[in-house]
Specification:
This protein is α+β, with helices and mostly antiparallel strands and about 200 residues long. β2 and β3 form a beta hairpin. Strands 1-4 form a two-stranded antiparallel sheet. The protein contains 7 helices and 8 strands; from the N terminus they run ααααββββαααββββ. Helices cover about 40% and strands about 15% of the residues. The structure holds protoporphyrin IX containing FE (HEM). The site of protoporphyrin IX containing FE has 18 residues, from α1 and α7.
Length: about 200
């Protein structure tokens, strides 16, 4: 259950938090939604694939707030990582939130910039510098479904409500890990009907 529902709920909440913090991003998303669906029409799979800006915003929110940040692996043979010998049968803890905020891969990592996910920018980075759904043979089997789910939820919510948050900056948000990532002081999101 946690694999699919808790991760999706947490991801959507972090997206709303990011969107609430940047009114100019929210306005652009609203325009894209109006152009794509208008005010009332139902969300269809085909239309979801046209939400290019929303796709980038979601990726940027979940880079900064990676909902499933801690994973473990065990080596099945001796390996060498950047000059360090690691014997077989060693347990590893991987922290993807750290990876996603590492200045070695992300310039100005706490700057919110959805355009980091423009295709030409993605092409410049190592494919494993962004591991929202992990990588390799044990990566998330629900990734496409999760993306569609989050886009559908945001498409419904953002057309009807304006999102606000009391948080003023990413640096303000202290995080803890309860299996999934959480802000220590809650999401602090409020919604205002658009009309
Ligand atoms: C945004 C939402 C989601 C995120 C961030 C997420 C993230 C992840 C990550 C990072 C892993 C890798 C775990 C590892 O390597 O040890 C994983 C595995 C998995 N996820 Fe997701 N997930 C999400 C949604 C879903 C959904 C919607 C489903 C099911 C419909 C799902 C089912 C699974 C399953 C079954 C695995 C285990 C795959 C395996 O061990 O072979 N996830 N997920």
């Amino acid at each position: 259950m946690a694999a699919g529902s808790e991760t999706t709920a947490t991801s959507t909440s972090f997206c709303l938090l990011g969107i609430g913090m940047y009114p100019e991003v929210q306005a652009k998303l609203y325009d894209e939604l109006m152009d794509t669906f208008g005010e009332d029409s139902d969300v269809t799979w085909k239309d979801l694939t046209r939400l290019k800006y929303m796709d980038r915003v979601i990726k940027e929110c979940l880079r900064i707030f990676t909902p499933a940040p801690i994973l473990s692996r065990r080596t099945t043979g001796d390996i060498n990582i950047e000059g360090i010998d690691v014997p077989s049968n060693t347990n590893f803890i991987l922290n993807y939130n750290y990876l996603h905020r590492n200045p070695k891969y992300w310039k100005d990592p706490l700057k919110f910039d959805p355009d980091r996910f423009l295709p030409e920018e993605v092409a410049k980075r190592h494919p494993y510098s962004y591991l929202l759904f992990s990588g390799g043979p044990r990566s998330c089997i629900g990734s496409k479904f999760a993306e569609m789910n989050i886009k559908t939820l945001l498409s419904v919510i953002l057309r009807k409500f304006e999102i606000k948050t009391e948080y003023k900056s990413i640096e303000d948000i202290k995080l803890k890990i309860n299996v999934v990532l959480r802000p220590t002081t809650g999401f602090m999101i409020s919604v205002k009907p658009r009309k």
